[in-house]
């Protein structure tokens, strides 16, 4: 019965999208172009170096090296192997879905068990600092200092999710006998790294080519989801469905004493973060604290667009999606609460703090973040086209050798 209902739901949603595409072709094309521009100007060029680097570091055994060194830290805190520190750091630096991509690769390499991989995925997908400071703080709210509050709430909340998820799957692990882990040492870490590289029979050129192709393939999939959800969100609004569903969120906002006018932007943000954050920043009935609390929640929730990307990355593995989805709700709640707590000390009283390396003033700092975004927007399409052409050449060369 459940499968029949699922079939009806999926076919109904697909039919709705097809009908709306026919009825609203101009709006659908506009939304599609918006998603495409976001992908090839910002997402692709900013994530490609991280994806390729991650693939190479895994292939050359460096992740095994840091896994041995960070085992004493990651195991007590998050109950995952030390190699999870690589996924966590790369996920925070480059943004989603890098954490899911690396976690899936580590699972494929056998460096994580299924339970450990599900724990790791739950807290390694975060917004990048560039997105939080550049796009949200400067681009939408025109105040780079807000990035301090949003970033602190987001990343600390993410770590708290990891601590909570360390207890996930404990019963299943009790049934499996644990082998004694040797103590961390640089010598043993180097030996493990060398053994990993030697055990990989692929030549250097093949490793690099696979890294480029796998990264580009994943990013093309990410672009498809961005465009799909951009169109889907637009169609829901045009068809009048978004305002109807948003009324349900009004009651939820009233419980937390937040303006009900934020219901529609919140609903939009649950689908696509960028659109939701932009709408929230433009809402005049809410004060700044109320706005950034809701923005923090949708940043932690990741948005269904990002969650669909993660689900697609995890699909070829045995990593289940449900723990990740639960962790997103938990992260959104933690981030919202921390934003309310950090707002006064980190924003209103910011002059008494000295954040080294973090922009805390307007003017030149805001211009620098905007300059980075504009530079990405200018060079992004060129980088994307060059990368796609390179992938095509690699594939063509391999086809000739067959």
UniProtKB/TrEMBL annotation:
InterPro entries per the UniProt record, alphabetical: Gate_dom, Spore_IM_YlbJ
Entry keyword set: Membrane, Transmembrane, Transmembrane helix
Domain Nucleoside transporter/FeoB GTPase Gate, chain residue ranges per copy: 43-139, 220-315
Residues spanning the membrane: 7-24, 44-70, 120-142, 148-168, 207-229, 235-253, 292-314, 326-348, 379-396
Keyword Membrane: yes
Protein name: Sporulation integral membrane protein YlbJ
Organism listed in the record: Lentibacillus persicus
């Amino acid at each position: 019965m459940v499968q029949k209902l699922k079939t009806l739901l999926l076919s109904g949603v697909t039919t709705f999208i097809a009908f709306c595409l026919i009825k609203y072709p101009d709006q659908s094309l506009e939304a599609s172009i918006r998603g495409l521009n976001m992908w090839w100007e910002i997402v692709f060029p900013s994530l490609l170096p991280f994806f390729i680097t991650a693939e190479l570091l895994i292939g050359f055994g460096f992740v095994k090296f840091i896994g041995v060194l960070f085992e004493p830290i990651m195991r007590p805190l998050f109950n995952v192997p030390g190699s999870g520190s690589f996924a966590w750091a790369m996920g925070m630096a480059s943004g989603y879905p890098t954490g899911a991509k690396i976690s899936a690769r580590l699972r494929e390499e056998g460096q994580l068990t299924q339970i450990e991989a599900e724990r790791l995925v739950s807290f390694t997908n975060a917004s990048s600092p560039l997105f939080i400071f550049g796009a949200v703080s400067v681009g939408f709210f025109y105040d780079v200092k807000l990035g301090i509050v949003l970033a602190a709430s987001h990343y600390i909340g993410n770590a708290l999710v990891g601590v909570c998820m360390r207890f996930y799957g404990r019963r299943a692990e009790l049934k499996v006998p644990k082998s004694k882990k040797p103590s961390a040492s640089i010598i043993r870490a180097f030996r493990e790294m060398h053994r990993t590289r030697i055990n990989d029979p692929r030549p250097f050129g093949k490793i690099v080519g696979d890294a480029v192709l796998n990264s580009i393939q994943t990013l093309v999939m990410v672009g498809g989801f961005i465009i799909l959800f951009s169109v889907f969100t637009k169609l829901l609004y045009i068809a009048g469905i978004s305002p109807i569903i948003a009324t349900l969120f009004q009651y939820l906002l009233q419980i937390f004493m937040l303006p009900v006018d934020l219901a529609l932007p919140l609903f939009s943000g649950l689908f696509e973060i960028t659109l939701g954050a932009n709408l929230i920043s433009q809402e005049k009935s809410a004060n700044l604290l109320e706005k950034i609390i809701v923005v923090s929640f949708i940043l932690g929730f990741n948005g269904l667009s990002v969650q669909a990307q993660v689900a697609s990355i995890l699909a070829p593995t045995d990593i289940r999606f449900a723990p990740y989805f639960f962790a997103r709700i938990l992260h959104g709640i933690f981030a919202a609460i921390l934003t309310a707590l950090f707002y006064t000390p980190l924003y209103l009283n910011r002059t008494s703090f000295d954040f080294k390396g973090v922009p805390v003033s307007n003017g030149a700092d805001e211009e620098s973040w905007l300059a980075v975004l504009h530079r990405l927007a200018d060079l992004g399409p060129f980088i994307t086209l060059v990368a796609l052409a390179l992938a095509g050449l690699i594939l063509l060369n391999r086809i000739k050798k067959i």
